[in-house]
Amino acid sequence: MEKQIFSLILITLGVFVIPFLSPFLRIPVAVGELLYGMVLVPLMDKADLEVINFLSFLGFSLLMFLAGLEIDWNKLETLKAREKLVIALVVASNFLLAGLAVKVLKLSVEAVLILGALGIGLMLSVLRELKISPYFKQIVLITGSLGEVITLLGLTVYDLHLTFGWSSSFYLYLALIGLFGLFFVFLLKVINLLVWYYPTQVASLIAEETKAAVDIRASFALMLLFMAFTSFIHVEPILGAFIAGTLLGFIFREKKQFEAKLSSFGYGFLIPFFFVQVGFSFDFSSLSVLFLQLSVVILVAIFVIKVLSSAWFKLLGFSTKEILLAGLLFSFPFTVLIAIGKILHEKGVWDSSNFALIVLITVISSILFPVAVKFLSSKESSA
Fold it and tell me: What is d(CA 383, CA 380) in angstroms, rounded to the nearest whole number?
């Protein structure tokens, strides 16, 4: 018990200090937390981390829920048909090229998810700092959002396949996810309509002292409900959290207030425990010349795939520099890469060295590519 308390104190101190150190080190806070976890490897015993593992699981669940919630469906629906077609072509080309690269490099089939991964978590914070065309930002964000949904839905399907193969049970449970999702959407629609048409009556049902927190409670309840369901049908509950967040964001479009509350709670407390725990899981014994060479090959493959698939943006009038910029922005899907690596490691598909490879690729890409983005965008704005 004393060792667990010591570990908890060490991690909590790091979580508090890292946001102040990260700007000086010029790295994202999440990357700093992950690196801090690596530093703790020789100081802590992995057997004494029950509390940390529990907090990490909650943090991971909330991270995936927020990843689904942050998708802006309003922007997607307001796009013109030509813009929707180009975005679809970019995302489709991305995964087709990832599949081709897996064949050429003779990697395992699940590596398609790594090479094709798209996400907007870290990209969003980088885009906020850039002084570039708002239209470019919008198109890139929507493309990243759609790609994130497809990546994680693909991981969900693959997770089911690992358990059931291509048997009838696979299709049955896949259909169950769809049906439960439709029921979930229907339920949220009914709640939304009740709040819209009877705001006074609904408000009167809630005690005054709990009104400020009711949206947080409801969000957690829905997240846990979907996690329980997906766990019941042999799918990782983490993926259930993502689907719940995606559906909630799809129904409740005016979500800024409760999304901000959840983000503050998540990134301020629970999610850092997850990133530190991932860093702490890093297997240093895997490091070798071949390991580092493979990391470089995969990083280059990710970048080339993203740039080539972004070439479709030419149809929207993007310049060559903007296409290169889009490729760079798509090359560091921090949250999604960690999620894929963590889930495949826990499912026993990958061993600790494979997971260490993904962690290393995630750290390098999340430091290197944002720097390249800022350098290229400064050239673009000055040109």
Answer: 5
